[in-house]
What we know:
A: Ubiquitin-like (UB roll), five-stranded mixed sheet, B: alpha+beta, Aldehyde Oxidoreductase, domain 3, Aldehyde Oxidoreductase, domain 4, seven-stranded mixed sheet, six-stranded mixed sheet
Amino acid sequence: MSDKTHETGTDQIIKPSAEIFGPGTISMVLNVNGILQSIEMEPRTTLAEALRTSLKLTGTKVACNHGACSACTVWLDDLPVAACGILAIEVVSRKITTIEGLGDADHLHPVQKSFIEHDAIQCGFCTPGMVMSCAALLARNPHLGVEEVETAISGHLCRCGTYPHVVQAMLSLSAEQEADHG
Amino acid sequence: MDNNTPKRDELLSVGMAHLGLKKVTREIPDDEPPALPPNAGLNFIGRSSPRWDAVDKVTGAACYTVDVQLPGMLFAAVMRSPLPHARIRSLDLVAARNFPGVRAAVTLIEALSDGSAPAVLYVGQPIAAIAAETLDAAEAAIQLIGIEFDPLPFAVDLDSAMKPDASVVYQKNEVAHIPFIGFPFVGELPLEGNVRGPNKMVQGNINDGFSSADFIVEETFSTQVQTHCCMEPHAIVADWHEDRLDVWMSTQFTAGVRAQLAATFRLPLSRVRVRAQAIGGGFGSKSQLGQYGKTAVMLSRMAKAPVRLVYRRDEEQMDSGNRPSSRQHLRIGASRDGKLTAISLHAWGSAGVAQGAGVGNIAMALYVCPNLESLQYDVFTNTSPSTAMRGPGNTQGAFALEQSIDALAEKLSFDPVALRDVIDLSPVRREERRLGALKMGWAQRKSPGFDSGPVKRGLGMAQSLWPTNIQLNAACEVRLWRDGKVEVLSSVQDIGTGVGTLLKQVVAEELGLRPEAIEIRIGDTEFPSGPPSYGSRTSASITPPARSAAWQIKNALLQSVASHWRLDPQQLTIQDSWIQSADNPSQRMSWQEAASTLRTDRISVVTGRSDDYAGFRSSHGDAAIALNDLGGVQFVSVAVDTQTGVIHVERVVAVHDCGRPINPLQIESQIHGGILMGISYALLEERIIDPHTGWMLNPNFIDYKFAGPSGLPQIDVMVLENYQGFSATDAYGVAEPANIATAAAIANAVYNAIGIRINTLPMTPARILQALHGADRRTC
């Protein structure tokens, strides 16, 4: 690592800051979906690539690989982020949640259920990322309006045009919550 | 199934359900089921069953080609031309081949037929490819390829390519080798410079038509190059074995790719297997095997290992296909009563180094007019080859035609909807206009430029037209196992349209089971050959054979139960998973018990697509065109900010028909997609090529803009139940009609808002401001 990393503040995440990594593979431990997993990767490996290749968690999709479409959205602690724009080595101390950790076929998350019910899916390639952003939104704000949903998914691109059904899926969850709380 | 199958007469319902149905008698093949009642009388067809693969898609379990990982798999990278036109003086792969980790290297260009050095024709053209143990090694090795070019003059836009002294992309003797973009190749057209054509269509006498006109409108329209932007890039994993070839590919046509692989690599069809479990969009760009497909197979054959080739987003934008540009000069004459007397279309367009830039047949086919003339030219440029893209030709064509009809209506003092009632003979579109106009509040439409404030609102409408394509080489297998399990198998692939859901619904309806009980196995050429997912033909091609196969399976099961009970099978019915005797309702048997009476572990029926019951308009090879058209009418309201030039589409009312709707919610999804892609085409998208270098300047998702989720319009979708009694399901497609009218409807709404016609796409803020405040304010 050059002195430049100190200026960017990256050293707050990578410890110890003075150590030089790479270019060959190094081992690192990622906390993914509640499991600590040791992987061997080059320091330049993005989080998306590490998840998809070393950990075989292919639910995280890479569509643009430059942070423009959000297909690769995962949670860093509780925050949705684009995993193609983050190095795996930057997040070794963070809790990572991928689509595989959100729910499975037998235990679907309410957002996943609502996506199915409202057909907020077409080709499905942007769907896991979209679901992750929507689930994060629901966790921080259960009372949703169109504007909140559009803002939460504003970084997502979907070429099939699922946006209207995604918005409907989320508004129906909000309505359910309102009804439940009465 | 062939056309010699014995036939019987059946009474089938025809008409639009909400207006009342009539019955017609049709001859139908004996091995096909009785008439399917209208949706109101059905349990699962016509209702919104959840998407068959929805759980896999929302949980990330769906397996796309980019997710396929095979043991020992190599990674491929492609070396591409940095120059728009050049002769290759030397090409040396030795250093690249010797790079650590590299296992195969191939060249992808050939010397010309006269033996002279090969030439590259556009920036991004594949020249060589490397397969290595890691993608990093393959990309590093690409840098070691030695290459020397002699640059040649080039032209990347329509204007410069059409100049008499322009450098020429193809010589006259090369015409046979020009790639075409999915339409049938039109042979024997003259080539002058870079201009090939005209592809000509004439009917009546165009001069007489204009002489007898009371009014004439005449304008030139231009449309841009649009890229497909599939979220899953073009991807293939090829695994060459001594005795067979296994391929996983993100493709719109598994069976077509198998046929192309077999032909290219001289293999029997039976030794090639193509799989596509989940596919991240296609929109026309994944219809063929393509250069990338061949490349991965060549590398796998050489390396004796599986090879994965996945395009990066910049490669995707630069060289995976696009919608051709167009320039259309359209002249329409009409008499005072609104009747059209003449339509003349002269169109030029560039599909890059490919041919097929025509603007479709819409101007010649949508409206009734005795005198027609269409002259369409391909203009070759040093840019990447186009491929078909959602409503190819007609989407560009509708932008010109539907604005011209709007302009004509104004000249004739007709309402645009009323004029179409005079010139459009389709009763279906007439009803769609009526419903859409009511829903949109068309009666409140003001005169052009009426609003006085800085934000001006307007209403516009436009119509779609698309031929109803059918794939005759389309088959489906239904299996019933002795434990009661039902499977539906076909190589048909689901690119996001939801065809798997339709198969579940149709088979469940026929068998008296629930859709959840039906297992769908598709996207694999080991199963009967399914249709492609392009041309809006998939539902129309595969749902009728699925129902016929299910019906035959049902008959076999009832026969088995009847033997068990020693009854006549005619006395048995199936309802809600129970088989019972009509005479003695207490004699009943569950589906599972019934299946256990089968003599063998599994029974199976394979059926193919038969001809439409009333015949086809035309039929050629594997494809046919049905008697009906696919239409659709869209109404749009816009707000144009005259200070910023920003157009906001506030509302879209889309009224469409697709025969019998099988899954209304999925149809709505697909129509949303067509509309949003149309809004995007109208307002945002444009491939920008640097005229000095030939490079695409926006080969990414930041600089190439397409519609995101912000500021979505309210979209109201209405789908007619339009029965025609043409097949066992009477279902047809909707993907392309949903896209064709949108940009034109927006342009007409913008005209209604600001009183200025925008003849060029995309309608960017700069273009609107120029139209409002520039020197030439009449058109832009």
